[in-house]
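Comment thread on ticket #2218

A.B. wrote:
> Attaching the input chain for the structure job we discussed in standup.
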Amino acid sequence: MRLHVVFTENGDILAAALLDSVGPVRARPVADERAGQRAAEVYVPPEYAHYDVFAVCQRMRVSVEGRFPELRTKE
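C.D. wrote:
> Ran it. Output below, let me know if you need it in another format.
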């Protein structure tokens, strides 16, 4: 599962949209860069793929430590 996420500089997810849907509407949240927000497309790890988007946003955060942003569990 892929998500388009808007997140804070701490990696907290503010908004997310599912990118794998085949529906006609593909709305995506927009980051407010002046407020320090960023946006990225990330893959949900397979062990969390059964969660819905809301549960992923609550249980995970975006890590930008590597080459590409990725989801990690909140610690």
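A.B. wrote:
> Thanks. Noting for the ticket: The helical segments are 53-59.
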